[in-house]
Input
Amino acid sequence: MMLNDALGFEKVYIACGYSDLRRGIDGFATMIQQEFKLDPFKPGILFLFCGRKTDRIKGLLWEGDGFLLLYKRLETGKFQWPRSEAEVKAITSQQYKWSMEGISIEQKKAIKPLTPSRVL
Output
C-alpha cells in the first residue's frame, strides 16, 4: 500500500492539531471513538495523525479482520498539518495528495467547488 495517493480509500480523516505518536492501535482507535465520535471499524476509512515533529505521521486503517497501523517518516521536508483545531477533518483526495507532497491542504488559490444556491 502506498501512502502517497488516496486511491483505494473511501474516505480520509486527519486529526488536526498535535497527536501523541507514541500511541498504538488501541490508543488511536479509542481516540477516534471517544474524541471524534467516529467508527474506526469501517473498512476503507484512513485516519491520519501527526505529532509535534511534522516529518512523521501515523495512519490507522481497519481491513475487515484487523487494524493496519501505518507509519511514515520523511527523509527531507515536513508535512503542512492543520494545527489550529483539536478535531478531526475529512479531506478530499486532492487535499490528501497535497498533504503527502508537503503542501498545505488549505490552498488559498485553489478553486473551491460551490453548490448553486439560485436558479438561472
Q: What stands out?
A: Residues 11 and 116 are 24 Å apart (CA to CA). Helices lie at 25-34, 93-100.
